[in-house]
Design goal:
Blueprint (H helix, E strand, L loop, with lengths): L1 H25 L11 H5 L2 H17 L6 E2 L1 H8 L3 H9 L11 E2 H8 L3
Antiparallel strand pairs: 1-2
Length: about 110
């Protein structure tokens, strides 16, 4: 557990450095960490580490999205039957990539309201 805590501290320090460097590069007036903010003065190191750990946990739990899907997977994501998605392919609403799959961006676009 001590190694995890040290890893989180290292990550938090790197994020702080990177955000400060980014704010300098884009020319913001105040650093991204808002060091003068009263809320920062109230947070202990343990609380900061807990927040960082929760963020990492949330990121790890986030399901990975495939870059492309099969017709069956597309049908499941769209809530349609496999044959309907196949007909949409033949009608030109979707295009297969070189792998013979549908790029996920096309599925995302189909899910957007018109």
């Amino acid at each position: 557990m001590a190694d995890q805590g040290e890893d989180l501290r290292t990550i938090a320090a790197r994020l702080k450095r990177d955000s400060e460097e980014l704010s300098r590069r884009i020319g913001t007036d105040r650093p991204a960490t808002a060091a003068q903010s009263p809320i920062n003065e109230q947070l202990t190191d343990e609380q900061i580490l807990l927040i960082a750990k929760q963020a990492v946990d949330l990121f790890e739990k986030k399901p990975l999205r495939p870059p492309h899907v099969t017709i069956k997977q597309a049908a499941e994501r769209l809530g349609l039957s496999r044959s309907t998605v196949s007909k949409m392919l033949h009608a030109g609403q979707f295009r297969l990539n070189k792998c013979g799959r549908i790029p996920i961006e096309q599925i995302d676009a189909a899910l957007l309201p018109d």
